[in-house]
């Protein structure tokens, strides 16, 4: 079914019983194809285990859409964590609460390239903490929970050495060990993140923490769950699957819009970027490049798979999870040996109130960072040791970036370029994205040092501010902004005409030529218009704008001239009044000429009659005429 079909997400789908398609690995394209991926759309061949026919999917290199953004006050950014209550921001099992600062969208025009932007006010990164339960190994060593959760999003850690005071850390929400996966979805703010991705914002949820602290569990669930093809409604699923289900719910609730979803999945393994949907790239890693247009880093030649149905997103997740690097060490039998980035791009074609169809380009990234490791504790050697060193190095760079970014005005150079991870997270950390950090910690004493480090990291990250923007097609943004300008100028024109008693609508330009009225673009037709017609349409808008601007400036000129004339007239009036009073005073002193009442005396006899200054001035001119005679 074509995704272009607006009815794709109609309630019909709601009734659909989920049938999980167990996808086998997506086959890598022939090497010759790989070279061309960046230039044109290619077909990624997928087979299904249940004997379905090979299904071709469009894939193309990571898109670099124009970063024009919509300027519209309707794009307010509500708090990431809804129903916030400051009283008890700690989630045990099914408790609620959360907090998040609210922000209102502000109108802003940036001249980055030739684009306009809708940007929100700066806001801090949202940080939540998830504490995993004590595991079997720890229990067998007689360990127990040593962290306290007093509520209000606080975690209390005992001192790391005897006699040291306990430390209190505060976050948006704290998930205690008993919190379920559903609680994390409901109260972490990830739902709001998805809603914002649908609206066109670039959103990221990333898990950070030491090895074995529950990052993968939080995002994907227990080891092997995704690969086993479990139902998406399994209570064990982590945030990613739950988010996919919620995302499709959101899309179904917007039948007025047309959505196109594309997913990609990569890992950074030993500082190499590998496409998890095209494992062939492990031999020839992908390059991270800088895009001048979008002013952000992107991965060249990365597959993006069209996802028309929920199943397609699961297939991507399943395929990538199967291909990611996992290893075992003393602290985690299923340790992630790489950082992974699962990205779902959401293109939304929406009809604006001005008969123009605009596209927004939102995105939701799920980043599962490999855990920091103290190699002495994990007993890493050989390959695992090399992996651990690379993981620790990239996390260290991430730490430097977070420290610099959180330093407010003292912000110095931010070393994004020092690792692939920070290059790809740059926009989420301090650019134009909305970010949720889930700091994962273990509750036992043997992990206390690492726990305190993670909590410090998270506390620093909480200070980072970003300024989210909605991404739109440059063409749509231009047409929309020109249309708005035409309307504003027309309103101004009409106002000036009324003020100057000039009758008639705006119809002609300053040379008296009839201005060609810009045609109305029919809803949803913008995309079907050929390039030449679009250019013509833009030119017409621009012409109309400049004609209006010219006429408005002339009207302003006329108005200024009239104001100057008025000023001169009133000065003349004052001079004449004074002269009249002087003449009157001479008359009073003369015994022959009877005293004439002064101008002010005439007025005082009829106190209730309002005297028009222009008539008054006419009177004074008449009196002067009489006197001169
Ligand atoms: N909240 C939780 N509830 C139940 N089990 C959990 C929880 N968090 C983690 N676990 C279990 O602890 C083990 C380690 O978790 P996980 O693999 O998610 O850690 P990790 O932080 O991703 O580690 P690494 O960085 O080494 O990949 C897993 O078996 C996981 O199922």
TrEMBL record:
Residues 124-464 form the Kinesin motor domain. Residues 96-105 have a biased composition (Low complexity). GO terms for cellular component: microtubule; microtubule associated complex. Signal peptide: none annotated. It is found in: Cytoplasm, Cytoskeleton. Keywords: ATP-binding, Coiled coil, Cytoplasm, Cytoskeleton, Microtubule, Motor protein, Nucleotide-binding. Residues 559-586 form a coiled coil. One of its GO terms (molecular function) is ATP binding. Belongs to the TRAFAC class myosin-kinesin ATPase superfamily. Kinesin family. This is Kinesin-like protein. It comes from Parnassius mnemosyne. The lineage of its organism: Eukaryota, Metazoa, Ecdysozoa, Arthropoda, Hexapoda.
